[in-house]
Amino acid sequence: MIDKIETFCLQILRKIKLGKLADIYLAHKEGMRYLVFGVLTTVVNIVVAGFTYYVVFSGFAEELKVNLSTIIAIIAAWIFAYVTNKLYVFHSKTNHVRELLREIVSFTGCRLITAVVEVALMNWFVTRLQLNYMFMKIVVSIIVIILNFIFSKLLIFKKGEKNG
């Protein structure tokens, strides 16, 4: 399904005389897919964060509201990111439960590092500096995307002989 959508979009680019853009996409397909799914993961993160911050935890103390909203949003984004990165970006194949567990533990471990960074930055900017929650969520998400790509590419979804 993803391949069909991708092919359709590339055909549109060629029809509207943006074939060079399609060529660039194809030349850097893994990175471009990571970018697309990274944006979608960020959307999941921001939507869940906004909903929990402004609706679910609206009556809570500011620091607790920031922390709970950020953590719940991170978990939702983790699930989405793991599935899309495994299946559509890095095409990681695991043949045994042990390999799958190693991959999940690596993914979770690396994402825990960026989650700590995200929660710390959100706390600093929103509760200490009193900056807008949603604006800072977007800014911090950019930093997290970059860190997550580095971890995903180098440590989690490593291409081995069978991962082609």
Strands, helices and their partners?
Blueprint: H1 2-15, H2 19-27, H3 29-56, H4 62-89, H5 97-128, H6 133-156
How would you summarize what this structure contains?
With 164 residues, this protein is mainly alpha-helical.
Helical/strand content category: mainly alpha
Average pLDDT works out at: 89
The largest pleated sheet is described as:
none
- Dominant shape: globular
Helical run tally: 6
| Amount of beta strand | under 5%
Helical fraction = over 70%
What is the gyration radius calculated from CA atoms?
18 Å
Distance between the termini: 20 Å
Which properties best describe this structure?
mainly alpha; 82% helix; globular; 6 helices; single chain; 164 residues
